[in-house]
Specification:
Order of helices and strands: EHEEHHEH
Helix content: 40-55%
Distance between the termini: 35 Å
Strand content: 15-25%
Shape: globular
Number of strands: 4
Strand order of the largest sheet: 2-3-1-4
Largest sheet: 4 strands, antiparallel
Radius of gyration: 17 Å
Length: 117
């Protein structure tokens, strides 16, 4: 099942360290088959507010996403970004083919009923 690295980056600055990070990140992703799906384009906010930009990287699975983030190659460049840009980064497993949110609703209803009993 695919997994994703999602970043919400605020207060972006095009500091030379950030540019170096951008120049080097793809080489850290390649061994883990990571690929950018979203990389900071302008965002059309349709509800609420969204200060900053977003990045979405796809991996074959959560194991690859975790291995990439913990890899020496990525850890070597990480501070180039984190020292210059505030943001949040999460790794999350995607849903499989045929995912039906109604099935999740059934599960959540059952959990809620048990909690209330």
């Amino acid at each position: 099942m695919p997994a994703y690295g999602f970043a919400h980056l605020r207060d972006r600055r095009h500091h030379p360290d950030v540019l170096e990070y951008l120049e080097r990140i793809q080489d850290t992703l390649d061994p883990f088959h990571g690929r950018f799906l979203i990389h900071g384009p302008p965002t059309e906010v349709v509800e609420g507010s969204w200060p900053g930009s977003m990045v979405l990287i796809e991996f074959p699975g959560l194991a690859e996403a975790r291995a990439w983030y913990a890899s020496p190659a990525y850890q070597e460049i990480l501070r180039l970004r984190t020292d210059r840009i505030d943001g949040d980064v999460v790794l999350v497993e995607g849903v499989g083919v045929g995912y039906d949110p109604r099935e999740r609703a059934v599960k959540l209803r059952a959990e809620t009923t048990r909690e209330q009993a």
